[in-house]
Amino acid sequence: MKIIVTEHYEALSRRAAEIMLEVVRGKRNSVLGLATGTTPLGLYAYMIADHEKNGTDYSDIRTVNLDEYRGLPATHAQSYAYFMRKNLLDGLGIPSANTHIENGMAADAEAECARYDALLEALPRDIQLLGLGSNGHIAFNEPGTPFGAGTHVVTLAESTVRDNARLFASADEVPRQAFTMGIRHIMQAKRILLLASGANKAQAVYGMVRGAVTEQLPASVLQLHPDCILIADREAAAKL
Ligand code: GLP
Which of 36, 69, 79 to mutate to test the pocket of ligand 1 (most atoms within 8 A of CB)? Predict the structure, then answer.
């Protein structure tokens, strides 16, 4: 794993943007694996600013997202589909037919997972962006998830519900389940870029980089990926 430590969040976002833009400019029909959460917001703002200023072309780019809350329609302000449109996809002018995310409202969860697995196999990602849960989760793969898992429905850990409650009116409104890309498909990406910012990620970053590779800390699997880059700000890297 290549580790880049930056002074602060702003520098982390800028460095991440350089890496993403290298991929987009290098191959006009790249497949980008994208992530939600607050950590990539700075990166996404850089990508939109670059698109506006330099006209970087996204018309043939395809995107695949990691996860979606179960039970939230794409129109819900806290759904990840809505988050992606608002914070990145609309700003880059990517045709919506080229953007993919699990359908949180799918009545047949098993069929939805199979549909998404087939899509992931058909769209090998040139780069997969990841955030990090404070408990070491990636996407919504909570501790204990088998590394071989494909797309599945997960019951969120209590700590994840607490962490994500800040984005909802109250913890009661956080959906208890989600669809998530599994670790098997995360690991299939050609390159992985994980961003970690803030002191509440320091323990998970330490475990991910220096600890044993274990399903109890899902992000530790990234030690086995041949081209994984971690960008952490000083606070997140404090225990390394
Ligand atoms: C959610 C998402 C993850 C994300 C994590 C961290 O649980 N499913 O993909 O990495 O939040 O979020 P944040 O970046 O806001 O700390």
Answer: 36
Looking at residue 75, what DSSP letter applies? T
| Separation of alpha carbons 202 and 206, rounded Å | 6
CB 231 within 8 A of CB 208: no
Burial 79-106 (b: 16+ CB within 10 A, else e): bbbbbbbebbbebbebeeebbbbbbbeb
Q: Give the pLDDT confidence of 121-144 residue by residue, as tens digits.
A: 999 999 999 999 999 999 999 999
Given the CA of residue 38, which atom of ligand 1 is nearest to it? Answer: 15
pLDDT attached to residue 151: 98
Amino acid at 117: D
The pTM assigned to this predicted structure is 0.97
Q: pLDDT tens for residues 147-203?
A: 999 999 999 999 999 999 999 999 999 999 999 999 999 999 999 999 999 999 999
pLDDT in tens, 197-215: 999 999 999 999 999 999 9
Question: At CB < 8 A and 24+ separation, what contacts does 162-166 make?
Answer: 163/133, 163/134
Encoding tokens for residue 112? 């939805």
DSSP 157: P
Rounded Cα distance, 46 and 43, in Å: 5
Helices 9-26 and 41-54: angle between axes, nearest 10 degrees: 50
Give the residue numbers marked as catalytic: 67, 135, 137, 142
Query: Which residue's alpha carbon is at the smallest distance from atom 10 of ligand 1?
Result: 131
Give yes or no for a contact between 179 and 67, defined as CB atoms under 8 angstroms apart. yes
